[in-house]
Each structure stands twice: as C-alpha cells, then as structure tokens.
Specification:
Blueprint (H helix, E strand, L loop, with lengths): L1 H11 L2 H19 L4 E7 L3 H9 L4 H4 L3 E8 L6 E6 L4 E10 L3 E8 L5 E10 L2 E9 L8 H33 L16
Antiparallel strand pairs: 1-7, 2-3, 3-4, 4-5, 5-6, 6-7
C-alpha cells in the first residue's frame, strides 16, 4: 500500500517535489531514530486479520487503551491518517500516521498540538496461532540532549515510565483481541503522565 501511495504521489508531482517529500520523510525518521528508544512486545493469541481489523477502525484506542478517555478520528486508516487522543488526565494529543503497511506495521508522530512530538512504531508479526505486537517509542523528551547527558534520565526515569505505559496498552489490546473485553479505567496502574 505504501509503494502504491508513493507511486501515485510521484505521478502527481514534479520530480523535484517528490525528492523533497522523500527527503523530508527520511530526515524526520533520522531525527527521531537517533534518540534512545523504549519498546515493549506482547504475544496475543488471535489471528493477524483480527488484530488488523481492530487497529483499522476509527477510534480504536477507546476499546483497549487504559489511559484513553476519547479517541476521535479525523481521517482513518492509512498513511496520512490523523486522530486525537484525549488522555484520562485531560491532555489532548494528535497522532499523525506517517507510514502504514497493512498487516505489518504503522508509524506515527504524536504530541500535544504546538508542542514537541514523539515518534512511535507499531509492528505485527504473525506466528501462526499468535501475533507478536511490538510498540517502540522514540520520545521527544531528550530530543535536544546529547547521548552522554541523556543516558541517566533515559535509563532511570523515561524508560521505566514508558515501559509501564506500553505494557498497559498492549495488555489492553491482548484482553480485547482475545476475549472481547473492552478495557476499563481500573485495569491498569495509575500513570503520573496520563492518568
């Protein structure tokens, strides 16, 4: 689907504009991927089409995200999609999908409007009876720090906080995909950033 999208874009724009589009996308990814990532992976016992059907629905976070109060789709699904995620603490984050590969992965930029953004990648691997779902976050919190001075805050504060968050999100997805149980507010531990 991404290749088809890029082919359509290439045909609609002059070659110079298409090169600019590719350079902008690549520089965006390089900017975020140079940061310390935080990942969490969860095995879910269901089919890949079922997981992808859940993810592809507008407002899908309301079904399984324990810190989500509201998830309003502006445009969904696919590359170029956007939605608003209202956390339980009232903060509103905008998600911009920058990459969407059906049944494989999607990547997004997330953050409060007008504030720094983080890069997030969701990956789905089919192992016959189960799916491995992995979320990797490249947080904006240390984006302007050098690697040396950012290591301790990353290791002892940001990484533990984000791993708790990612585990709660993926456990909610597991519960919803395997048993059809919509996540409840008290299903995850309180989180100082999002609750």
């Amino acid at each position: 689907m991404v290749k088809e999208f890029l082919r359509k874009v290439k045909n609609q724009f002059p070659q110079s504009e298409f090169k600019f589009f590719n350079m902008t996308k690549e520089s965006l990814l390089i900017k975020y991927r140079s940061q310390w990532p935080v990942s969490f992976e969860q095995e879910i016992y269901c089919s890949l089409p079922k997981i992808w059907e859940i993810i592809s629905k507008p407002g899908h976070l309301e079904q399984f995200h324990p810190y989500c109060k509201k998830n309003e789709a502006i445009k969904w699904p696919g590359t170029g999609s956007q939605d608003l995620l209202t956390y339980r603490n009232g903060n509103i984050y905008k998600r911009d999908i920058v990459e969407w590969v059906d049944n494989e992965s999607f990547s997004l930029i997330i953050g409060e409007v007008g504030k720094p953004k983080s890069f997030v990648k969701w990956e789905f691997k089919d192992n016959r009876k189960k799916i491995k779902v992995k979320i990797t976050v490249y947080p904006h919190l240390l984006l302007n720090w050098n690697k040396f001075s950012s290591y301790l805050p990353y290791k002892y504060y940001i990484k533990p906080k984000l791993r708790i968050y990612l585990k709660a999100v993926l456990c909610g997805l597991k519960s919803y995909a395997e048993y059809g149980v919509k996540v409840q507010r008290n299903m995850a531990t309180r989180h100082s950033w999002f609750s």
